[in-house]
Amino acid sequence: MIEKGKSGLLFLLVVLSLVQSYFLAYSKPYLEARVNTELSYVKTEPLGKGEKLENLIFPEQLVLHMGNDKHTVFYPGAQRFYELILTKLQLRTFKGMKRESLNAIDWDKIRQEDLGVELRFGRPIPFELLQRVFRIDGDFLFSRDSIDRIWIYTSKGREEVRTFFFSADGRYVYESQRADLTVGDVEGYVGFGQFWDPYTSEDGNIYIPDKPITRLMEMEVPFTRYTPDQMQDNLFFDPSSTRIIRDKTGPLYYTDNKKGLKIDQDGTWLFYTDPTAPTSGDDNNMIDNVMSAINFVNEHGGWNGQHKLVKEVEPESGNAIIRFQQYYREVPIVSSSSMNFGYMQLTLQQGLVSSYNRSLLILGSEVTNKHSRQLPGGKPLRELLNQMDPTGKNIEALFPAYKPTIGEQSVVLSPVWAVRLVSGEVVILTESTPVMLK
Q1: Residue 108 and residue 243 share a domain
Q2: pTM
Q3: Most buried of the four, 7, 109, 187, 221, by CB within 10 Å?
């Protein structure tokens, strides 16, 4: 009798265990509701297009050296020759890197006498990022260095091509001893320069056109814009928990008591902060921060047009500052110090974004009210450069740009000469003037 009771009790326990297992496997209403609710906050409305690193790194100038101290300069988008040369070079391979002192070679003699093409990036680009754009051998001792120029040339009377990568600190060059380039390749690149404007340089640093430049037009570009509500939904984990602070004459603020969002300049500029991101730490890899910055923009607003990576700085605070310069029709947009426009800038620490600045305007592809304009060249341009920098030591680059003037529904883009100072600051040197009819 006792044995039968034990058997019955054991049978009952087994049945209860099976029933409990069934409910555990198929009935979790509270957990499912909580997970779905959290995921609904993570999903954000896609806004602009995404972008890849490869499209954000490109030379700001191609300087062609044609021998007999003759030169010309190609800028992105200003002529199809730029794209032809760059595309061809991206298909070549560069191997067998050997480091040498910069002063071991007479670069003035080479630029005056030899045929060559010089790719100028403007700002330091780590080898690891440059390898995403060019086929560069990564298995060498100094691959953690940064590069700001590539110079490819061939000497008269010698059937060889030499390729050098210039260290951004100005101390070394790296020669690719096994680059699959021929003398015919270099001659072909340089040949494109025969059809372009002549440029002159006194020191090999700043090249200026011998004559005025008339190819860039002043134009009016209509725009659409992201709304504050779109950016609120996109940047806050739970938009329903944010508070709005309105000022009739000033910016619009959003906050969830942790993160902050400021909409300024009549709804055209965004400034976002996330103080929960780390503010210090030893593990702050610049490559990781650049990739994190690109991914953050991809997910939070996207890219409103073409951009170029122009700044990767780690100040004393330990935070990385990443800036992307906006281009329109392959020409950079440079605003005055009184207006924010023409760039995105992010501050990161250990791959996490603590601040995010960007325009909310999306420029259209169609333009109206086009007018011919002229940028000075030759002696007048050289005098302007000397007035700004009498010593010749503070200006490191000269390039054409667009100055924006924002209206209610459109932006007027006017051609200007811009310069970049050794500090990294970009300023407008002079504006264009109407083309005088002969």
Answers
A1: no
A2: 0.85
A3: 221
